[in-house]
Amino acid sequence: MNKKLVIGAVLAFLIPAIVYASSPLFFDTTIDEEIPSAKINALQTQDAETVQPVELALGIFVGVGDGIHNAEGTAKVLSIDDAQFLRLEDFKATNGPDLHVYLATDDKATNYVDLGSLKANVGNQNYRIPEGTDLSKYDTALVWCKQFSVLFGHANLS
Q1: Predicted pLDDT at 43
Q2: Quick count: other Cβ atoms within 10 Å of Cβ 62?
Q3: Closest CA to 84 of 131, 37, 49, 124
């Protein structure tokens, strides 16, 4: 009788834990952010003019290829109004826990700038690059699982 009680207690804990840990793998989250732009006032008029960003670098995501972790789409570095952004377009990644977007020196995340948590695993999204980030050094965009130190995909920016 005690053996059944112990097994029941273990299963009561284990099943919800497994469902919680694996649930991101079964659900997509989607976002569709606009391309960053700036509004400037035209001289001596009340009309605002939209200024489009300048593309500084471009890369294509390459997934890990292990059948579990994947990222695909385009990564662009955009500059507008003295600000820089990493933009992910036509982006799709396998969902997972604690995914972050990094600018790194390689695809192993040995030296990186964390741009924040991945906003969604599907769709167009923007991440502000901190001022002073050396893009000649941090020339690789990564989708990285911070919790388990696992790469989902990278894009070499050039």
Answers
A1: 58
A2: 14
A3: 131
